Amino acid sequence: MVKLRHIAISVSDLQKAEKFYEEVFNMQRLRESKVAVNLSDGDMIAYGSLCDKPCPSPCLRNHAL
Q1: Exposed / middle / buried, residue 48 (Cβ in 10 Å: 0-12, 13-18, 19+)
Q2: What are the tens digits of pLDDT across the range 10-24?
Q3: 3-class SS at 2?
Q4: CA atoms of 43 and 23, how far apart (whole Å)
Q5: Which of 21, 28, 62, 63 is deepest in the core (most CB within 10 A)?
């Protein structure tokens, strides 16, 4: 079975997105900077970064299987 291992999204509110992934998917912060955060559930890594322009909703940057 193919599993999702990595996803990168652009968000307009990094702290709000981080809190969502921690609470809903039980992910934990691996590292962070002023413009990005890496989260993991042990198998999958999520990378969130701030948008360069206003984002009406999260923008999918890339994903990997």
Answers
A1: buried
A2: 888 888 888 998 999
A3: coil
A4: 17
A5: 21
Q: Is the pTM of this model over 0.85?
A: no
Check: CB of residue 5 under 8 Å from CB of residue 62.
no
Could you tell me the two tokens for 22?
Answer: 């921690």
Q: Domain residues for 59?
A: 6-64
Show the DSSP H helices in the chain as ranges.
14-25
Rounded CA gap, 20 and 23, in Å? 5
Number of domains in the chain: 1
| Predicted confidence (pLDDT) per residue in 36-64, tens digit | 888 888 888 887 777 665 555 555 554 44
Domain CATH for 16:
3.10.180.10
